[in-house]
Specification:
Keywords: Cell membrane, Membrane, Transmembrane, Transmembrane helix, Transport
CATH architecture: Up-down Bundle
Main location: membrane
Strand content: under 5%
InterPro entries: Mem_transp_PIN-like, Na+/solute_symporter_sf
Number of helices: 14
Membrane topology: Multi-pass membrane protein
Protein name: AEC family transporter
Shape: globular
Order of helices and strands: HHHHHHHHHHHHHH
Helix content: over 70%
CATH topology: Na+/H+ antiporter like fold
Number of strands: 0
Largest sheet: none
CATH class: Mainly Alpha
Number of domains: 1
Structural class: mainly alpha
Radius of gyration: 19 Å
């Protein structure tokens, strides 16, 4: 439990610095934009690459990835079914609620929590690989279909996914490890330096995004859906991960690790997608904020229950 508190102290300290930087305007009007693009196109792919090169790929692609996949897909499906059955919400509102409640922040929060709470960034890799390779293409395709009448748009979505630098880094890392290629240290050192920049830059960028926001605005009509999505993300998904892990025979530290990853807050990528398609942007943004705050209490509870 002390590891959770220590980890979140570091995480929220860096987020706080980002908020102060945003408030003071030190980085100018485009600071968050530059930081986000730097982490997305440069630092995060480097972090995924070095993480894979230094990890046991068989472990990454085995039970933890299966738990991440089942818990994410089942949570999303339950949200779609429940909201469609009990409300009149359809289209983008339905999709964004389901995705907000089932897509974890494997990069911006997953890497820091994996490093500071679990002690190794490789614990975040199964979640990231599942989401980048399977879940992200799926929900982007569905979101495109419900927001656009352009029948050729799916090809554009597919091209953007294939061109995602994190997916490319993951594919390159997996190929190198599976082929048994040893990368010389002199070649890996520059990549490692870029990777070291990723986590602080992610957290600073998120802190910058919090400055000036107005969460839970009453007039947008999303409060109920935000509550549903946040509850699913913080409670339902970790419970499903716990059940799946137990069913697969996982115990102790390995079970704790997959449940912690399932309890991570909603990914900022969901807000990026919502903004891209102009679909329920406030719903996605506020769910990210609520779950990022609530994750602290959830992880403390998980640590107490699993006695890690």
């Amino acid at each position: 439990m002390s590891g959770v508190l220590a980890g979140f102290f570091i995480v929220w300290s860096l987020i706080g610095v980002g908020w102060v930087v945003g408030r003071t305007g030190v980085l100018g009007a485009h600071g968050r934009y530059v930081l986000n693009r730097t982490t997305f196109f440069v630092a995060s792919p480097a972090l995924v690459l070095v993480g894979l090169l230094g990890s046991d790929v068989k472990a990454v692609l085995s039970l933890p990835m299966l738990v991440a996949g089942v818990s994410g897909l089942v949570t999303g499906a339950l949200l779609v079914g429940g909201i469609a059955l009990l409300t009149r919400r359809r289209g983008a509102d339905l999709v964004i609620t389901a995705v907000s409640g089932s897509v974890v922040n494997g990069a911006n929060m997953g890497f820091p929590i994996a490093l500071y709470v679990l002690g190794d960034i490789s614990h975040a890799l199964p979640v990231i690989l599942f989401q980048q390779a399977i879940y992200t293409p799926l929900y982007l395709f569905v979101l495109h279909r419900v927001t656009s009448e352009d029948s050729q748009g799916a090809a554009g979505v597919l091209r953007s996914i294939v061109a995602n630098p994190t997916i490319i880094a993951a594919a390159v890392g997996l190929l190198l490890v599976l082929a048994g290629v040893h990368v010389p240290g002199v070649m890996l050192d520059p990549v490692q330096s870029l990777a070291d920049m990723a986590i602080p830059a992610m957290l600073l960028a998120y802190g910058l995004s919090l400055h000036g926001s107005r969460p839970l605005a009453k007039d947008d009509g999303y409060r109920g859906l935000i509550a549903v999505a946040s509850s699913a993300k913080l409670v339902l998904m970790p419970v499903i991960a716990l059940g799946v892990g137990l069913a697969l025979g996982m115990r102790g530290a390995s079970l704790y690790e997959v449940v912690v990853m399932a309890a991570l807050p909603t990914a900022q990528n969901v807000y990026v997608a919502a903004a891209r398609y102009r679909a329920a942007e406030n719903l996605a943004r506020d769910t990210v904020l609520i779950t990022t705050i609530g994750t602290v209490l959830v992880l403390l509870a998980i640590s107490a229950v699993l006695e890690v």
